Recover the amino acids of this structure.
């Protein structure tokens, strides 16, 4: 009797994981302890039915005996079953790591990929959690234990009979730098850094910026032999307001000198993310002139959109795409675009206008008529525009990498920095 | 066997009907036969000698398990391969074993000997994995074996094996809780482990097995704090959560002094400068609170001194706010929320706001926590208000949570901005969200009296919305609002009465009927008519509406029986035969009560009193109120219900338990006495370096009058430490005179102390150093990863001791830096107590949120906006009026001045403007934003400042050198100049790599000040003290276009960096007075350098006559300012 009770109160953190596809089929289950029937997922499936959008499914659902914590990612639900108190973010963060791990191993995270690599995914899950507590979540450690699929290796394996599973303890697991393995060798030593900045903005209908901020990320691709110790410095670190780092970055150095000092993981990783000091005004690269009107008769309306460059720092704006969430009563649209093409999905009421490169001489315009469902009243809601864009070779905040120094190794690495600015959650209210 | 397997198959297969089977021969027929076929060929493969066949079979079996298929009948065939040489096969066999051992206990025992052998293997990986699998096999018989294995592994040489042992503990415990005592011994042993690898896992085990044994932590507390930053992310989360609980049992409440005042709004002591807070009658409380400077609580208590270990925890967790792992950030945030002194909690806001960029699930959890926090500590999130603005693409659940946070953050200063946002949301397509917005408006209206009428008007206009849901929600909210002051709103009630013809939503109908009934005296003509209509439709109404019809009838009968007697009887008769018993009961009850019959009792005399009693207005409360009794970030908090296994967050102890329990004794381990010394040193260090300063600081934060005594005791014993925290200086700067002496004494000591490192550190002086001290943390240990343990240890040791030195240095740096603000502050003459929190706030914010000075940045803007509140809210209607662009302070408001013309600068043009942001490295400087534009084709290099020729007393903080500026590009930088409150120009040279240009920056007088927030009463009081010579008045005539309130405010705020004083905030609790005949606009600010108050009043006397009054201690500034404002207003 007593034992039963104790079991209840001292269960592990993550008990089971189910992968569920958009139509509600469970196509993988993993239990780190005793098996929980998949009928527990019914509570979740019920909530999913109720939600209009998969994103609206509550991430935490309480059932009589369990708690379900789920994430929706890459059109898949990762659903974990919890029995006792655990910080929800702990589980959510872990589930995202699982998704990232699948992505990292197989190039994408989708139902097909998981089904094709069922055994390997299962083994990976086995390594990532022990008794429901995260064990090895660093991609480098995992890759030493379970080698990612690779055509060459599978050929070799079949010929020699060797396997995908490592038989030595991953070096990272033991060291204080679990993210890097020992004995990395490259013939071409190179380190690339991409500074990617995204502009989040809300522009109101008069064109005034209600809210704007810049979020940046430094993505690194480091292929260096041995144990390089890198130092990356910025010309204007003062710009960075709030930062978060890969665990490899030494906080202390950053605090005192504002340089990033780190022993990098091998391969691709996110070195840091940052938020740019709001004190510096955010340059808004494009403007949108828009008008939407509906006839009083209620039969239809007109839409007119023009996109033009604003503060672009002399660069070309590319990959411009405008998406409009139309009011529900709009049945169809009949538009002509001077540049690019548009699609309208009547199911999701999504109007997408793919413009491409922005030519300041000839501003792209799209206009035409909207037709409403017969008998429907004139919509009262205001649609909003979401804008996507890209500017190469520019970090809109003005952040610049000053230099990259390497210590600890003798060779001369090839170094490169790339800047790119994108629209993040960039919304224009109409 | 066969029966068994069939049974199992059925069991396992029941839930997965319709799934394609893996490894299934498509030709096979029924379930049973196919299973046999399939499993037979798998068995064959497993029995073969070829590893490749075995591997293939195992892969197929594991794939079956992954799909949730039953493969238990293969157990005997699989378990045979447990000793297989091929490591991949072996791993898969392990996977299988762990899954099915429970079901096939006897057979599972066959494999045990393999694992026992594995436990002795020289390879640590094999030892670890043997232990891992062994402990995962849930077979009770092997408990003793497991126990032995765990004990052995706990003293293994390899930390990896020890980690595995820690993981095995909870597994064994859940299998056999009777082992608890033995397991605790192992946990105790592992807790003493000094490797980061083990720390997280063992704390996890501790939490699962014996969370109540807090005493086990004492000896390891400091070690855990110090190791924390190097522990892997997941371990960090567990350790931080555990340490939060630990700290709650061992340390004293750092906010104990104000916890007594909590109910009255303890938060006002810090953030209170927004002078608003929640309740309507706050104004009064505010006043009283400020007048009696929190004396009673303080006098009685001993001064609070923070335990150095408490400080250690706060200091060592802070850098983790920068973690990429949301769970770690949240863990630190909750630790700060639950453990830190109020003044320090602010640091977590930025990190939490950052998490909002993350996945929507993360956002969801973070927003829930922010919602709870923002009720208790609104000031913390106010600067980030805009980060909670809602996008149409957000999922509904996120929208609703953001709305909750916005509502919690609303106060008089920002309400107009927030309401303008709400107005956009009302037009959203997402109707659930619109309904939530309407409720939010209702809450804002009840909380902030000033906007009640405007909100109400806006909501009334929503009543003509076409969407019924919107109308219904509005009706419900309006009903609640009207209850507060029904007398003035009879026309709204009339309007709503008309709606009964159209609105079908039951809740809304019921609300209208209740309103009419309750206030039938205000609408004597309409009410009976409504009842007449309702009586007609009674039978077809919903229950809740019927009940209200009965209520309405009863109330009308009591007030106006002549007209409604028959109607009431009719309604009651209908109700008598209703299907619903509630309605029948109600009808019977009411009839007895109101209709006087000979039988009716004494009660009917009081019927009128019963029905028409004055009902208190409803309080619209946040659903997140008081949720913080759950530990934040926990599942229980999220669900607002206790989850299984939740450990309550204990209340602070009344008196601190003995702190010496955490002292580490003589080394138990053999090695290195040097390490021990280091340990000791480390442990004691905070005692000298921080605790004094901290405690002083907390003290002063808590209550000003207390500070003197605290710092007295502090500085007497440890003078050198007094200034270690830069926040302290800021806190002090606003406090009373009796502190002055104390401070001077301290300063002297500091000066002496600081002299030494000056030369060395001067070059690297920068604003970052302000914060440096807070972030003292052990550097990551790197470099010697491949070495064995011992090496590792010694390595870390040396790096730690090195680091200690640097810590000390950095501290001294800060001490030195600190001198400046102090000396500035002390030049300031005594201020009235009233003002103190203000200064505190702005300074405090600067430090806490450094380097974003957004809080004060937002304030002036908002103040400016609040002026146009009325205009804005007209927009709550759904008409398509475009907001005039001027209402939204465009960034272009800033006037730019030319510093260097393109032609003189040979292609380099330089402009500057006063961006009105606080200059974060030094709050006494005016921030000047300088924009360089290189219009030449060649690049300009090494842009920097040289040879500044400044008037005495003026100082300048140059911008960092711009190394290159390519042609065609522009860049902007910010520099700070302390103009000493004069309009004298700052002359300096602007140098490029080739040339030097003499330039000068002359500030308009309006830029020498920064806005502060004041209530009207405070303003008047301050103004009263600045009469006579300090008051300058000018008369003027306003042009037509400039007479509007909006125009005046805009012009004044453009001319001078002041914030508007909200008017009429004192009319809240009394019935609203009619607006003054002629509007008075008040603006407040203080000069940047000396902090002298600048008060501006613009009185519109009607007939375009107006009067400008400036009250300022600095007469020169006052005179110049009057001129500037006159000019601005008459242009």
């Amino acid at each position: 009797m007593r034992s039963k009770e104790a079991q209840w109160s001292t269960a592990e953190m993550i008990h089971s994981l189910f992968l569920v596809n958009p139509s509600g089929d469970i196509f993988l289950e993993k239990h780190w302890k005793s098996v929980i029937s998949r009928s527990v997922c019914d509570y979740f499936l019920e909530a999913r039915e109720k939600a209009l959008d998969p994103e609206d499914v509550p991430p935490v659902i309480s059932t009589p005996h369990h708690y379900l914590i789920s994430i929706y990612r890459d059109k898949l639900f990762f659903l974990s079953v919890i029995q006792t108190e655990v910080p929800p973010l702990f589980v959510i963060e872990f589930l995202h790591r699982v998704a990232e791990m699948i992505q990292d191993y197989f190039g994408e995270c989708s139902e097909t990929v998981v089904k094709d690599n069922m055994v390997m995914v299962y083994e990976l899950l086995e390594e990532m959690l022990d008794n429901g507590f995260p064990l090895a979540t660093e991609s480098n450690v995992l890759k030493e234990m379970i080698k990612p699929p690779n055509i060459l290796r599978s050929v070799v394996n079949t010929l020699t009979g060797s396997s995908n599973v490592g038989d030595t303890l991953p070096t990272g697991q033991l060291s204080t730098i679990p993210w890097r393995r020992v004995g990395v060798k490259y013939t071409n030593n190179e380190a690339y850094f991409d500074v990617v900045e995204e502009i989040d903005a809300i522009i109101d209908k008069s064109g005034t910026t209600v809210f704007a901020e810049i979020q940046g990320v430094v993505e690194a691709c480091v292929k260096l032999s041995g144990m390089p110790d890198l130092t990356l410095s910025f010309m204007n670190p003062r710009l960075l307001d709030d930062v978060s780092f890969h665990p490899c970055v030494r906080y202390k150095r950053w605090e005192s000198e504002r340089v990033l000092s780190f022993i990098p993981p091998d391969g691709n990783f996110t070195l840091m993310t940052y938020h740019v000091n709001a004190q510096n005004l955010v340059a808004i690269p494009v403007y949108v002139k828009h008008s939407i009107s509906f006839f009083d008769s209620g039969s239809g309306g007109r839409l007119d959109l023009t996109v033009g460059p604003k503060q672009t720092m002399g660069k070309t704006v590319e990959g411009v795409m405008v998406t409009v969430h139309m009011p529900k009563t709009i049945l169809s649209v009949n538009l002509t675009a001077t540049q690019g093409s548009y699609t309208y999905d009547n199911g999701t009421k999504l109007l997408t206008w793919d413009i491409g490169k922005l030519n300041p001489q000839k501003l792209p315009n799209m206009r035409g008529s909207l037709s409403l469902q017969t008998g429907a009243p004139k919509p009262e809601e205001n649609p909003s525009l979401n804008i996507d864009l890209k500017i190469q070779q520019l970090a809109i905040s003005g952040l610049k990498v000053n230099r990259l120094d390497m210590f600890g190794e003798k060779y001369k690495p090839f170094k490169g920095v790339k800047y790119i600015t994108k629209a993040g959650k960039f919304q224009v209210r109409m | 066997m066969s029966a068994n397997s069939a049974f199992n198959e059925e069991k396992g297969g029941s839930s997965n009907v319709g799934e394609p089977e893996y490894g299934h021969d498509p030709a096979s027929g029924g379930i049973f036969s196919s299973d046999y076929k399939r499993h037979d060929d798998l068995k064959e493969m497993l029995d073969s000698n070829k590893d490749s066949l075995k591997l293939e079979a195992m892969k197929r079996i594991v794939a079956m398990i992954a799909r949730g298929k039953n493969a238990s009948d293969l157990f005997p065939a699989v378990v045979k391969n447990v000793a297989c040489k091929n490591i991949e096969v072996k791993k898969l066999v392990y996977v299988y074993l762990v899954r099915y051992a429970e079901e096939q206990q006897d057979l599972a025992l066959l494999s045990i000997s393999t694992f026992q052998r594995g436990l002795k293997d020289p390879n640590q990986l094999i030892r670890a994995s043997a232990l891992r699998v062994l402990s995962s096999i849930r077979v009770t018989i092997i408990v003793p074996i497991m126990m032995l294995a765990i004990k052995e592994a706990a003293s293994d040489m390899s930390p990896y094996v020890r980690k595995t042992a820690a993981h095995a503990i909870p597994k064994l415990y859940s299998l056999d809780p009777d082992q608890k005592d033995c397991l605790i011994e192992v946990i105790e042993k592992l807790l003493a482990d000094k490797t980061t690898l083990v720390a997280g896992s063992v704390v996890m085990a501790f939490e699962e097995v014996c969370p109540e044994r807090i005493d086990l932590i004492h000896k390891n507390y400091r070690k855990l704090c110090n190791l924390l930053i190097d522990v892997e992310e997941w371990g960090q989360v567990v350790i931080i959560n555990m340490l939060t609980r630990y700290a709650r049992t061992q340390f004293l409440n750092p906010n104990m002094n104000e916890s007594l005042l909590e109910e009255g709004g303890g938060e006002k002591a810090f953030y209170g400068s927004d002078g608003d807070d929640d309740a309507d009658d706050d104004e009064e409380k505010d006043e009283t609170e400020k007048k009696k400077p929190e004396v009673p609580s303080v006098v009685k208590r001993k001064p609070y001194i923070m335990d150095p270990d408490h400080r250690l925890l706060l200091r060592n967790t802070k850098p983790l706010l920068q973690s990429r792992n949301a769970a770690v950030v949240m863990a630190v945030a909750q630790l700060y929320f639950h453990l830190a002194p109020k003044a320090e909690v602010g640091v977590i806001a930025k990190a939490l706001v950052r998490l909002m960029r993350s996945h929507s699930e993360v956002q969801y959890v973070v927003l829930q926590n922010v919602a709870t926090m923002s009720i208790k500590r609104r000031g913390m999130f106010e600067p980030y208000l805009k980060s909670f603005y809602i996008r149409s693409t957000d999922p509904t659940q996120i929208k609703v949570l953001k709305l909750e946070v916005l509502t919690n953050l609303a106060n008089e200063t920002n309400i107009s901005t927030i309401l303008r946002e709400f107005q956009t949301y009302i037009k959203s397509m997402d109707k659930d969200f619109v309904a939530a917005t309407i409720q939010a408006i209702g809450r804002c209206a009840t909380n902030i009296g000033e906007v009640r009428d405007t909100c109400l008007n806006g909501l009334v206009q929503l009543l003509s919305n076409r969407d019924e849901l919107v109308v219904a929600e509005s009706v419900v909210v309006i009903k609640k609002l009207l209850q507060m002051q029904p007398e003035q709103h009879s026309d709204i009630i009339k309007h709503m009465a008309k709606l009964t013809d159209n609105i079908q939503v039951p809740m809304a109908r019921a609300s209208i009927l209740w309103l009419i009934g309750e206030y039938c005296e205000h609408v004597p003509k309409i009410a009976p008519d409504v009842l007449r209509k309702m009586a007609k439709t009674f039978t077809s109404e919903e229950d809740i509406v019927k009940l209200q019809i009965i209520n309405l009838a009863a109330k009308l009968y009591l007030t106006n029986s002549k007209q409604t007697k028959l109607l009431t009887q009719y309604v009651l008769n209908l109700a008598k035969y209703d299907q619903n018993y509630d309605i029948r009961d109600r009808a019977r009850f009411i009839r007895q009560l109101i209709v006087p019959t000979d039988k009716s009792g004494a009660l009917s005399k009081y019927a009128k009193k019963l029905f028409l009693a004055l009902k208190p207005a409803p309080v619209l409360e946040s659903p997140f109120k008081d949720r913080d009794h759950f530990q934040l970030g926990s599942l229980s908090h999220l669900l607002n219900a206790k989850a299984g296994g939740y450990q309550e967050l204990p209340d602070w102890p009344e008196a601190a338990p003995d702190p010496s329990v955490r002292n580490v004794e003589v080394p138990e381990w053999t090695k290195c006495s040097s390490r021990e010394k280091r340990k000791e040193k480390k442990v004691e260090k905070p005692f000298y370096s921080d605790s004094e300063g901290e405690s002083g600081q907390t003290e002063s934060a808590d209550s000003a009058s207390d500070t003197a005594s605290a710092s007295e005791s502090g500085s007497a014993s440890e003078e050198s430490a007094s200034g270690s925290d830069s926040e302290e200086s800021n806190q002090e700067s606003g406090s009373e005179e009796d502190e002055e002496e104390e401070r001077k004494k301290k300063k002297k000591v500091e000066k002496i102390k600081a002299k030494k490192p000056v030369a060395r550190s001067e070059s690297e002086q920068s604003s970052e150093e302000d914060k440096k001290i807070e972030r003292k943390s052990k550097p990551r240990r790197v470099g010697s990863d491949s070495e064995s343990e011992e090496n590792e240890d010694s390595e870390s040791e040396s790096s730690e001791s090195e680091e200690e030195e640097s810590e000390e240095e950095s501290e001294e740096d800060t001490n030195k830096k600190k001198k400046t603000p102090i000396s500035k502050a002390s030049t300031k003459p005594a201020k009235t107590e009233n003002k103190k929190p203000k200064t505190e706030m702005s300074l405090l914010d600067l430090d806490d949120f450094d380097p974003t000075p957004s809080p004060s940045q937002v304030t002036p803007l908002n103040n400016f906006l609040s002026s146009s509140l009325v205009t804005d809210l007209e927009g709550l209607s759904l008409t398509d009026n475009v907001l005039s662009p001027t209402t939204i302070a465009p960034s272009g408001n800033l006037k730019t001045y030319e510093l260097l013309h393109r032609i003189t600068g040979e292609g380099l043009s330089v402009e500057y403007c006063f961006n009105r942001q606080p200059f974060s490295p030094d709050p006494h400087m005016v921030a000047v934003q300088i924009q360089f534009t290189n219009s030449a084709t060649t690049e300009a290099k090494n842009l920097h400042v040289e040879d500044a020729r400044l008037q005495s007393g003026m100082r300048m903080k140059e911008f960092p050198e711009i190394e290159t500026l390519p042609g065609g590009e522009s860049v902007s930088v910010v520099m700070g100049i302390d103009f000493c409150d004069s309009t004298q120009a700052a002359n300096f040279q602007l140098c490029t790599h080739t040339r030097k240009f003499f330039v000068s920056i002359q500030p308009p007088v309006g830029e020498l000040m920064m806005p502060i927030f004041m209530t009207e009463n405070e303003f008047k009081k301050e103004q009263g003290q600045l009469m006579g010579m300090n008051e300058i008045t000018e008369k003027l005539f306003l042009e037509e276009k400039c007479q509007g309130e909006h125009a005046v405010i805009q012009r004044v705020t453009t001319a001078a960096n002041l914030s508007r004083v909200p008017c009429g905030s004192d009319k809240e609790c009394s019935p609203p007075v009619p607006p003054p005949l002629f509007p008075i606009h008040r603006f407040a600010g203080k000069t940047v350098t000396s902090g002298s108050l600048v008060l501006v009043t613009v009185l519109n006397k009607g007939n375009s006559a107006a009067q400008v009054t400036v009250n300022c201690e600095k007469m020169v500034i006052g005179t110049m300012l009057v001129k500037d404002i006159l000019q601005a207003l008459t242009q």
